[in-house]
Amino acid sequence: MGEAVTQSAPVLRALQVTKRFDGFVALDAVDFSLREGERVGLIGPNGSGKSTFVNSLTGVFPIDHGSVLFNGTDITRLTAWQRARLGLARSFQLPRPFKSQSVRQNIEIPLMFAVGQTNPDRIAAEAEAILLQVGLGAQSRASPKSLTQVELRKLELGRALAAKPRVLFADESMAGLSDTEVDEVLEVLMKLNAEGISIVLIEHIMRTVVRFSERIVVLVAGKKIADGDPREVMSHPEVERAYLGQ
Amino acid sequence: MGVDAELLFYALQTGLLLGGFYAAVSVGITISFGMLDIVNIAHPAFIILGAFVAYYLNSTFGIDPLLSLVIAAAPAFLLGRLLYKMYYYAFERHGEESLQGLAFFFGILFIVEIGLILLFGVDYRFVEAPYISTTFNFWYVSLPLRLVIPLVVGLLMVTAIQLFTSRTFLGRAILAVSQDPGALRLVGGNPVKIKEIAFGVSIASAVIAGPLLIIIQPVEPSIGRDYIGRVFAICVLGGMSSLRGTVVASMIVGIAEAVTATFGGPAWAPAVAFSLLILTLLLRPEGMFQR
Fold first, then answer.
1. What is the mean pLDDT of residues A35-62?
2. Number of domains present in the structure of chain A
3. What confidence category does residue A214 fall into, taking pLDDT thresholds of 50, 70 and 90?
4. Closest to A52 in 3D by CA, of A77, A33, A74, A24
5. Domain of residue A33, residue span
6. Cβ of B169 under 8 Å from any chain A Cβ?
7. pLDDT class for A1, splitting at 50, 70, 90?
């Protein structure tokens, strides 16, 4: 699989992406590429720009300089919902379900908007299938308010998956979970990746990142300081100093 | 004491009937202010616009006000969508909606009001329909159709909007955009388009409430100002974005106004909504119902 991944074309590229907030440089000319079906870990200390980077690529806010390419097409000027429809999905660090709607209805919204399905029966059936896939089949009719933390994270992933993404940014999907729960979420992510979805895992739990990723990218103070094989990156002196050696 | 009890009974009866009409008047503000965060202070102006549409169609072509309500709905929906587009491109897109947007809707309020004055003058106008002067009496219960019809239509309107928001994908998208537009955007929903449709529904509901108002009482162009405090008070009391809360709050305001008018005099009635608004904000700022 590693061989095939290496040879595939980049599905997503960021070129010299720069983002400033009132003069503060949150991202400083960051280059990034992600291949079809690749699993990448994005790490960095708090405030290093990880979430800003994800927000920049998914179109939550505009960037000040640089460009973002999806399948070779420049999507820098596209809005977040246009990027979602193309196949860029993300889950949130803090789960943000639509609380007034059931678990299944939360999954149905992206099926309608991102995928453009209109047949209610088909949408319902597909939503049920996605819930089974992420391990929430039994909670289909429940309110998100009744879900546990790990179930909420799975709902986030399910909702992102329902948008039929080609790239998924999992933003701290495992923060605050127990080891068993982390394994559950990791299993879901591996399953999604096995279906061909490229995944960028933004995570603080190093053991999990190393276990999951084929490649690790490190951001420190808005700059990319390392990008490569997990073992090599983790032993990179600058990474140890800036992040691991704290 | 016996007389007081009888008066109270009539006040309660009138208040309940009036409450149904208030639900029709306020459901649009629950959508625009409660769900979309748009402080549409011009909402009552569109109620009066609807009333004058009913007046014009009735006085010129003899069209029943209830039919004019159907005729006005679609153009009002399109007008609402157009207004939201203007509001979005001028203010919301730049994050300048709070103060400048409020000024925008103030402007719309006055434009509609002055437009109606130029077209129809400042006199009170009324409509003619066979049911307006009909009253059914059962025992102590008196049911004037000019109040029963707005109650029924008002409750039907809220039920229809409730079914729309809970049973259709578009309606559920409106609930989603009211809760978290950012999250909706990231699953492929275009919040601007959804808000535009929802605002269209809001304005259509206001214009539809107009013929109901002119069935109840004669109207003149500036009468809409009386409803500004009332509709916002009902929205806040009902829990901002809860349709069920809007109905219950409308009934409470209707009854409170009718009881106040009966025992304290009609002059005190307009103060009721503001008093309830202040009490709600002090004691239960989240309102009675939360969606």
1. 93
2. 1
3. very high
4. A24
5. 2-94+166-244
6. yes
7. very low
Chain A nearest C-alpha distance from B107 (Å):
31
- Whether the pLDDT of residue B1 is over 50: the answer is no
A145 shares contact with chain B (CB less than 8 Å): no
Which range of A184-193, B189-198, B221-230 scores highest in mean pLDDT? It is B189-198
Give me the mean pLDDT over the B204-230 stretch. 95
**DSSP-derived pairing of the beta strands A24-35 and A167-171:** unpaired
Distance from CA of A52 to the nearest CA of B (A): 15
Query: Cβ of B187 and A96 within 8 Å?
Result: no
Q: How confident is the model at residue B126 (pLDDT cuts 50, 70, 90)?
A: very high
Mean pLDDT score across all residues of chain A? 90
Selected residue of A54, A78, A109, A159 to mutate for chain B interface (largest B Cβ count, 10 A): A109
Chain A residues with beta carbon closer than 8 angstroms to that of B190 = 79, 81, 113
Measured between CB atoms, which of B175, B180, B186 is closest to A84?
Answer: B186
Residue A53 belongs to domain with CATH number = 3.40.50.300
Tens digit of each residue's pLDDT (9 = 90 or more) over B237-246:
999 889 999 9
Report yes or no: B191 and A118 within 8 Å, Cβ to Cβ.
no
Contact flag A99-B179 (C-beta cutoff 8 Å): yes
Q: What ipTM was assigned to the predicted interfaces of this complex?
A: 0.85
CB A33 within 8 A of CB A12: yes
In a domain, A46, yes or no: yes
Confidence of residue A7 (pLDDT cuts 50, 70, 90): low
* Distance of alpha carbon B9 from alpha carbon B138, whole angstroms: 13
Chain B residue with minimum CA distance to A97:
B183
- Average pLDDT of span B63-68: 96
Are B176 and A159 in contact by the 8 Å Cβ rule? The answer is no
Q: What residues in A contact B191, CB-CB < 8 Å?
A: 81
Q: Answer whether residue A206 is part of any domain.
A: yes
| 3-state secondary structure (DSSP) of residue A148 | coil
Report the predicted TM-score, pTM, of the whole model to 2 decimal places. Answer: 0.89
